[in-house]
Amino acid sequence: MISRGLRSLLGLSPAPPTTSPPAATSVARHTVEVVQDELIQERVIAVDAATPRQQVVLLAAAATATDDDHADDDAGEAGQTEHGTTMTTPLFLPSPSSMVRRALFDDIASAEECAILMAAGARGFEALSFAAGPSLDDSLPPLVPDAEELIGQSAAALAQRIAVRMRNAVCQGHGLVPSTKDAGGSSTDDDSGLALSGSLLCRLLPPPPPPPSVSADSSRQEEIARMMKNYWAPHIDKANRLEYDFSSVLYLNSLGSDFGGGRFAFIDGDGVDRLLEPRAGRLVTFHGGADNLHRVEPVEWGERWTLSCWFSQRSGGPQ
Questions:
Q1: pTM
Q2: Most buried residue among 72, 98, 104, 157 by CB atoms closer than 10 A?
Q3: Which CATH number describes the domain made up of 55-225+240-313?
Q4: Beta pairing class for 194-204 and 304-313
């Protein structure tokens, strides 16, 4: 969520009103939004176009987390999915600080499972009857109780099973105790210390080309304003919901074969954008706070599909 101050600075319309949260929550959320705005200003808006930030691809779509060139000797033992099969060993991604942990897993979901979720999502978007047709970023929550009405019972059940793997990957990637129980269960029947806070099955499409600009300066301003009101805006997940302690993104299709553009970027404080190329079945997990300002690059062609789950860590939960 972009704060009112940054919206005003960029000439964006005000965000729609929401139900007022408790005062303490409002203060905490405002604090996160202020931090987010400062990071966006410093790392994106104020960057001189003549000296752009360095970009480093951490893992290409054609590579895997278990390749010899990428495997982490300190990754630890492989985890277990809910079926008892071996989960791939995580690749711990480079970051500006040893305190910032980012983990990547390949093959969390099979190609068939990814295809089922994408087909179900397409049916769900059609059922929602978007009046103007597909938007640039269609999404629906696949783990809510009524999800099967949109995506079907079998796809909803599959999303639940994959969410368990995603939660276990989050636990393994961040040194928490995993659980094999239903990811959508209540806090009383989850022994991992993590509770599901949100989920989205999402399809991103290419944006139309921007209109011509009068000058280079106006072009830069228009580019930033356009970015900040679309899906490729940089953000901190906790600025959307404070409960988003841990984020996880599962890619359902692959860069290069299914779409162009759409890379994931960590926008770090050392002047480096650390990029990940989506690959079907690949999952990345990271903390939802200010250490992980991130964005998605605009899709250039095709459709980019993901299943995202966010988890909150309950106080007193297993560590």
A1: 0.84
A2: 104
A3: 2.60.120.620
A4: antiparallel
